[in-house]
Amino acid sequence: MAIKLPEDKYVDVDGVSTRYWALGDRGSSVLFIHGQGGAVDYWYKNVFPIAERHQVYALDWVGSGKTDKPNATYDLDDLTQFILRFMDVVGLSHATLIAGSVGGILALKIALQSPARVDKLVLIGIGGLGKEVAFPARLTSLPGVGEVLNHPSIGAARFMMQQCVYNPDPYLNDSEFMAMVLRNMASEILQFQTRTFRTMGNFFGVKSKVWQTIQSRLPELNVSTLILWGKQDRAFPVSHAEIAKNGIANSQSKLFDKCGHLPYLEYADEFNNAVLEFLST
Fold first, then answer.
1. Is residue 197 within 8 Å of residue 147, measured between CB atoms?
2. Which residues of 96-118 are buried (b: 16+ CB within 10 A; e: fewer)?
3. What are 181-203's pLDDT values in tens digits?
4. Which alpha helices (DSSP H) does 134-267 contain, by range?
5. pLDDT tens digits, 1-13
């Protein structure tokens, strides 16, 4: 089956040409925020169903996908500000943030920094709740190693999918999907993401100043939150879902069995239904 993608749009965010999608003309606004090494492409199973009832936005944040990749190092605070500025430029005064992986850290930082701009949160296998993170990410933090390892190849794309999902075979056997993965692993993307990861993590995991700060501030959140996690997530362990649920008072969680880091792909229908139900309450 051919992968259907919305029309690409571009907007200038403080000098950075930024790719985004905008679809849907009814209901409340939602903004999809991908993780490190991700892109809007990976939301292709979600944006159309959600847009039937909501105004949907999704962006490639700086250094990702088809957005510009400056030769600079962006840390989590820089990326948070970039997303807020994107919201300003497209006229999105507030929205529900649907965020995965490292994108979830950015969503939490936005909710803590600018609570009036966040209607609800949907957090999917997010980072920043403990030091644990997948070994390949920790390995690329080593000086010189990341530069050597982070080169695009079909082998690297296959390895990424083997790490990210519980059952990789359907993806590995889909040439169109794998071409999409490889397209989002261009060398300049990988090098940008390596520089960013080194600001938040090292060989031992996520830096304590990052995760301890976020974890300690979870009780400050007064926003309705849906936590979604794959039980077999290799990137950030499912035990972190409980940390989020215990820390955020107004939260609920749903775990997906036989599921890795990408429940929105692995169990798209169930994911979409859970999000739509959450948004309707």
1. no
2. bbbbbbbbbbbbbbbbbeeeebb
3. 999 999 999 999 999 999 999 88
4. 135-140, 145-149, 154-164, 169-172, 175-183, 187-200, 208-217, 239-247, 263-266
5. 589 999 999 999 9
Partnered with residue 202 across adjacent β-strands are: 205
Predicted confidence (pLDDT) per residue in 208-218, tens digit: 999 999 999 99
What's the per-residue H, E or C state across 22-45?
EECCCCCEEEEECCCCCCHHHHCC
Place of tokens 């105004």: 55
Give 218's DSSP letter: G
* Chain centroid offset of residue 31 CA: 11
Give the residue carrying structure tokens 């919305």. 6
Separation between Cα atoms, residue 214 and residue 192, nearest integer Å: 23
pTM, two decimals, is 0.96
Six token digits for residue 206: 């996520």
Query: Residue 251: enclosing H or E segment and its boundaries?
Result: strand 251-256
HSE, CB side, 13 Å, CA atoms: give it for residue 108: 30
Q: What is the pLDDT of residue 215?
A: 95
- Residues 6 or more apart whose CB falls under 8 angstroms from that of 132 comprise 205, 206, 236, 237, 240
Q: Tokens at residue 53, please?
A: 């009832």
d(C-alpha 182, C-alpha 162), whole Å: 14
29 contact partners, CB below 8 Å, separation of at least 6? 54, 55, 56, 57, 92, 94, 95, 96, 119
Residue among 140, 129, 148 at smallest CA distance from 238:
129
pLDDT tens per residue across span 228-254: 999 999 999 999 999 999 999 999 999
DSSP class per residue in 105-143: HHHHHHHHH-GGGEEEEEEES-SSSSS---HHHHHHTST
